[in-house]
Amino acid sequence: MPWESRLDTSTSEMADGPVQRVVSHSPDETMALGRRLGELLRPGDCLGLTGDLGSGKTTLTKGLVAGAGGDDDVRSPTFLLHQVHSGKVTLHHLDLYRLPSGTDLASLGLDEFLTEGAAVVEWCERAEPVWFNGTIELAVEGESSRELRLVLPPHLREALDG
């Protein structure tokens, strides 16, 4: 993949598991990383994304959806709140930007979504962290460069191996 040749990775340890740091140098590299993660998603996986506006959360999600075998109609669901992308794993894309902190994801049906599919939740800091088996923080490094800090379950960490 094109991003692998320029991939800058490192690992450190946190209470929730190892933090893997990746620097993406372009939106294409961010999507490629998302695609690799999406290929490994399983029903029950729930990834929380954090980062400022324009940090690449939706770009990463486009890759996740593609890797999970979904369509290419991925938009930030800020006004819709929830989009469903069918594929080998159904991926539910939620955006909590317009919701208050402490939003109860059970009231949005997330527990039901996770029985048959996976989920990616933008602005996940507005919900209780117990929902997420993985988190990805995206930070703007430059015009097209992003630093991603990933805390992932073992089966998704494989996306960064090799």
Question: How would you describe what is shown here?
Answer:
By secondary structure, the chain is α/β, with parallel strands linked by helices. It has a single domain, classed as Rossmann fold (3-Layer(aba) Sandwich), CATH 3.40.50. The chain is built from four helices and eight strands, in the order E-E-H-E-H-E-E-H-E-E-E-H. It has an eight-stranded mixed beta sheet with strand order 1-2-8-7-3-6-5-4. The protein starts with 7 loop residues before the first strand and ends in a 5-residue tail after the last helix. Mean pLDDT is 86; it is low at 1-7.
Q: What is the percentage of strand-forming residues?
A: 25-35%
Low-confidence stretches: 1-7
Largest beta-sheet details: 8 strands, mixed
- What is the CATH architecture term? 3-Layer(aba) Sandwich
- CATH T-level topology: Rossmann fold
Distance between the termini: 12 Å
Structural class: alpha/beta
**Main β-sheet, spatial strand arrangement:** 1-2-8-7-3-6-5-4
Can you tell me the overall shape? Answer: globular
Helix proportion of residues, in percent? 10-25%
The structural domain count equals 1
The CATH class name reads Alpha Beta
Mean pLDDT: 86
Number of strands: 8
Classified in CATH, the superfamily is P-loop containing nucleotide triphosphate hydrolases
